[in-house]
């Protein structure tokens, strides 16, 4: 059951939050509900996976011999040289 909640926030914060929510194709209410849900859940054993991480799982497939350390090193060398 949904219940209406009235809160007072700074106008700038609300404006930025609405833009943020719109870019992510969600409502401000849903975003706030998701946040409150995540911070009020009972502590679970292990590492909690956020909804964003869950949505990204399986998006990229890498070969078994992929060396992320080498890839990162190569990127940083190009960036700073």
Please give a quick description of this structure.
This protein is an all-alpha fold and 81 residues long.
Q: How would you describe this structure to a colleague?
A:
The protein has helices spanning 11-23, 28-40, 51-56, 68-80. The protein has a domain at 7-41. It contains four helices and no strands. The model has no long low-confidence stretch (mean pLDDT 87). The protein is mainly α and 81 residues long.
End-to-end CA span: 57 Å
Strand content: under 5%
Number of strands: 0
Order of helices and strands: HHHH
- The tally of helices reads 4
Structural class: mainly alpha
Rg from alpha-carbon coordinates: 19 Å
Q: What is the helix content?
A: 55-70%
Shape: extended
Biggest sheet descriptor: none
Give the integer mean of the pLDDT values: 87
**Uncertain runs with pLDDT below 50, 5 residues or more?**
none
Defining traits:
81 residues; mainly alpha
Furnish the topology, listing elements before pairings.
Elements: H1 11-23, H2 28-40, H3 51-56, H4 68-80
